[in-house]
């Protein structure tokens, strides 16, 4: 690996299951990694985890990265023991056929598969039918009696995928947004004697409407908010360069806008100044569709200056999301340098 970071921790974060509203396994990892690094760890009734590093002033900064992944909830069990699903987050049904999944039950995890029947057995009408999540069935390889005994409506389902190095990339499921949780944890480790109080927050339920960020914005009422998330990198065929949004290997993304936010001009300008001063590679991000915790933090407790650092990611919302190792390092470096240089005296009013 050319870029140096703790790949095993990133793999653990991505391979661990945690859909919106059911992020408890991730909470355990985040709490473990915060231990001995921050001054205080707490969680709230929604499940956000806050690790606070006390600074030399009352000025407070929230750094937020959501820890939920897109997934499913079991909504029905057929008489033959197949599971029908309700989506938690934005899925493209075309990527679901022939995927392995994990069903999280009270009696333990079960492996399953979303089947795909042989194409030569389909009618022309079936081939042309637009795929929908409602048409997906999970096969557990068990008789219906065993399924009824072990699975309940409301159990959770995630795709089953290992995280591996792929050339200069890392690929796997749930890099959206575990790679940002990873970057946040690493920045917390590096932060030493900050001039301001920093609340590092692993938020919940971002994939279903920025809900954790909205709650934490009210509870903490920060003076400044920085969100970390993945962003689109469509630098693959058949897209043309104006459609890329970001490009893998070109550095951390400094967000200018997405569907949920237009970032504070002075905040993204300072992020850019820090990157240039520290020779950290970066690219400017204009995301035409898709929201992030940035929007939830910017306005839920009144007007809050907000910015965001994004990790360019190919194949978002699929089981094979991919990031470039050097972009992960750039994201960690930029967040750390920004926090180290925050005095609480910068004027972000417009």
TrEMBL record:
| Residues that bind Zn(2+) 2 | 176, 207, 317
Q: Does the keyword Ribonucleoprotein apply?
A: no
Pfam family name, one: Peptidase_M42
Note on cofactor = Binds 2 divalent metal cations per subunit.
Active site residues per record:
206 (proton acceptor)
Entry keyword annotation includes Glycosyltransferase: no
An example Gene Ontology biological process: proteolysis
Alphabetic keyword roster:
Aminopeptidase, Hydrolase, Metal-binding, Protease
| CDD domains referenced in this protein's UniProt entry, alphabetically | M42_Frv
Residue positions binding Zn(2+) 1: 66, 176, 229
What the record says about family reads: Belongs to the peptidase M42 family.
What is the protein name given in its UniProt record? Endoglucanase
Q: Which species does this protein come from?
A: Halogranum rubrum
């Amino acid at each position: 690996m050319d870029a140096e970071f703790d790949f095993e921790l990133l793999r653990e974060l991505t391979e661990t299951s945690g859909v919106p509203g059911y992020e408890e396994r991730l909470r355990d990892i985040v709490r473990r990694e915060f231990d001995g690094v921050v001054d205080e760890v707490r969680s709230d009734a929604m499940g956000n985890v806050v690790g606070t590093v006390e600074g030399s002033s009352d000025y407070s900064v929230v750094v937020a990265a959501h820890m939920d992944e897109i997934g499913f909830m079991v909504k029905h069990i057929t008489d033959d023991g197949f599971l029908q699903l309700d989506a938690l987050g934005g899925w493209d049904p075309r990527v679901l056929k022939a995927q392995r999944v994990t069903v999280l039950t009270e009696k333990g995890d079960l492996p399953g598969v979303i089947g795909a029947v042989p194409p030569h057995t389909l009618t022309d009408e079936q081939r042309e039918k637009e795929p929908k999540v409602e048409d997906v069935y999970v096969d557990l390889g068990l008789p219906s009696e065993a399924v009824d005994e072990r699975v309940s409506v409301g159990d959770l389902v995630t795709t089953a995928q290992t995280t591996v190095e792929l050339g200069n990339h890392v690929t796997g499921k749930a890099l959206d947004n575990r790679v940002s949780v990873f970057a946040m944890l690493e920045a917390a480790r590096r932060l030493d004697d900050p001039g301001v109080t920093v609340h590092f927050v692993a938020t919940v339920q971002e994939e279903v409407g920025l809900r954790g960020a909205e709650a934490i914005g009210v509870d903490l009422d920060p003076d400044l908010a920085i969100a970390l998330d993945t962003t689109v990198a469509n630098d693959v065929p058949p897209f043309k360069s104006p459609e890329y949004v970001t490009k893998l290997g070109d550095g951390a993304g400094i967000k200018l806008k997405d569907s949920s936010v237009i970032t504070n001009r002075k905040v993204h300008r300072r992020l850019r100044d820090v990157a240039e001063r520290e020779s950290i590679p970066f690219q400017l991000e204009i995301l035409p569709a898709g929201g992030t915790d940035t929007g939830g933090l910017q306005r839920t407790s009144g007007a809050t200056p907000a910015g965001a650092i994004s990790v360019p990611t190919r194949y978002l919302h699929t089981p094979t999301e991919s990031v470039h190792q050097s972009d992960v390092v750039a994201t960690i470096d930029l967040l750390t340098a920004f926090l180290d240089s925050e005095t609480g005296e910068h004027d972000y009013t417009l």
